[in-house]
Write a structure and sequence with these properties.
alpha/beta, Aldehyde Dehydrogenase, Chain A, domain 1, 2 domains, six-stranded mixed beta sheet, 22 strands
Length: 497
């Protein structure tokens, strides 16, 4: 266990429970059906824990608990200072249990412990702390009106929020959804991804310890077609927040129409990362590596379409491939690992399938291009970091989201061509631009249709900065003050004077 040895006993105690139960109305309970499912260690394929499998009946219990807590409980009526204190307490508890949460995240997801410790866990704590600061700033307005009236607005919580989170950043994206919802006075039913439920369940224990009242946050692990679908369809749910694939996002949009729920969707991406010939090449190579291989490429905003100006293309691709080939692959618990396993057998099959598609399309593999079955890795879901060249922007590996450590390097002629090809996609979540020309940086950042554009950097986030997509990457903005709009509604009040 190496650097995680100090916390081994607490993690083992958490995993040793016969069944990790779900949180409903302040109680840890088994599924009504009695069903369970296994969550696996993607580095070894071994069972980590058995988890209660929620379905429609469990979702109904959780939603009704959230409804009671919202309609008649103390949460939305709590003094802002008290709610702020509780959110700050949650952040403190996440930090106090940082090593334990980081190890659980790495075991369940496969990401490196270094990333769990430096990104996922501290960012989750920072998100709760940021939204604690908004609790007493949710103000309304007074409006000019006829002098016979006094007109003002109130910003009120939406109500019961169903929140469905993905498996690539389980703890962090739970925080992205729970923190603003709670700050605004809502109650929540959280459905973690079935591949990675452990840190969400541990977070539930910390919420209890912080003093969050019963029913305010309910956590129901289960599968999308059962628990997730039941949450989307439930008539007592006022809002759905979803992060995941575009395909599932479209299904949620259709299903939510029957009850006219408010919906926010953060979906897939095929982000262009554009490198001009005048860029700092060393920095751009490192940025491209971070852009596509961070979290094994299982990032919705990954810069998987790497556009390089034609006169730099061959040199850049070779340097990128050489560096990628030297990245150590292994268990996320190994401190030397830079590329961990994919999250599941299903994801392994998806990514290796795209590797074969790319080869059939005529793309050239500079490095990788296959599953890694080296000694010690053969039981895990490892794919070698892969760099394709000879790629056209109309190939499937350049059009479709692969969600793995695979990058397509594509040449471009000039600035106009870079923008044209960069925007030639169904998605619009993020983009990168590498250049020393500040005027070009501004022009391209404005021209690219994406919710986030990084200039001479990639994958930089902060709770104060909004995140979300254009086009089929979804709508609504998480983080920053913009997320408050997702979890509040405005009431206009007219008073005759």
């Amino acid at each position: 266990m190496g650097i995680a040895a100090r916390l081994e006993s607490s993690v083992e105690r958490f995993l040793a429970a016969p069944v990790r139960k779900m949180l409903i109305d302040g109680k840890w309970v088994e599924a009504a059906s009695g069903k369970t499912f296994d969550t696996l260690n993607p580095a070894t394929g071994e069972v980590l824990a058995r988890v209660a499998e929620g379905d429609a009946e469990d979702v109904d219990r959780a939603v009704r608990a959230a409804r009671r807590a919202f309609d008649g409980g103390p949460w939305r009526r709590m003094r802002p200072a008290e709610r702020e204190r509780l959110l700050l307490r949650i952040a403190d508890l996440i930090e106090a249990h940082a090593e334990e949460l980081a190890e659980l995240e790495t075991l369940d997801n496969g990401k490196t412990l270094a990333d769990s410790r430096s990104v996922d866990v501290p960012s989750a704590a920072a998100t709760f702390r940021y939204y604690a600061g908004w609790v007493n700033k949710l103000t309304g307005d007074t409006n000019p009106s006829d002098e016979a009236f006094f007109n003002f607005t109130l910003r009120e919580p939406v109500g019961v929020c169903g929140q469905i989170i993905p498996w690539n950043f389980p703890l962090l994206l739970a925080a992205w959804k729970l923190a603003p919802a709670l700050a605004c006075g809502n109650t929540c039913v959280l459905k973690p991804a079935e591949q990675t439920p452990l840190t969400a369940l541990r977070l539930g224990e910390l919420l209890e310890e912080a003093g969050v009242p019963a029913g305010v946050v309910n956590i129901v692990p289960g599968f999308g077609p059962t628990a997730g679908a039941a949450l989307v369809r439930h008539p007592m749910v006022d809002k759905i927040a979803f992060t995941g694939s575009t395909e599932v996002g479209k299904e949620i949009q259709r299903e939510s129409a029957a009850t006219l729920k408010r919906v926010s969707l953060e979906l897939g991406g095929k982000s262009p990362n554009i490198v001009f010939a005048d860029a700092d090449v060393e920095a751009a190579v490192e940025g491209a590596l971070v852009g596509v291989f961070f979290n094994q490429g299982q990032v919705c905003c990954a810069g998987t379409r790497l556009f390089v100006e034609r006169k730099l293309h061959d040199e850049f691709a070779e340097r990128l491939a050489k560096t990628a080939a030297g990245m150590k692959q292994g268990s996320g618990l190994d401190p030397e690992t830079r590329i961990g396993p994919l999250v599941s057998q299903e994801q392994l099959e998806r990514v290796t399938g795209y590797l074969e598609i790319g080869k059939r399309e005529g793309a050239r593999v500079l490095t990788g291009g296959e599953r890694n079955t080296a000694k010690g890795l053969e039981r895990g879901y490892f794919v070698k970091p892969t760099v394709f060249t000879g790629v056209r922007n109309d190939m499937r590996i350049a059009r479709e989201e692969i969600f793995g450590p695979v990058v397509a390097v594509i040449p471009f002629k000039d600035e106009d061509d870079a923008v044209l090809q960069g925007n030639d996609t169904l998605y619009g979540l993020a983009a990168g631009v590498w250049t020393r020309d500040i005027g070009r940086a501004h022009r391209v950042a404005r021209a690219i249709r994406a919710g986030t554009v990084w200039v001479n950097c990639y994958n930089v986030f902060d709770p104060a900065s909004p995140f979300g997509g254009y086009k089929e990457s979804g709508y609504g903005r998480e983080l920053g003050r913009y997320a408050l709009d997702l979890y509040t509604q405005v009431k206009s009040v007219w008073l005759r004077v």
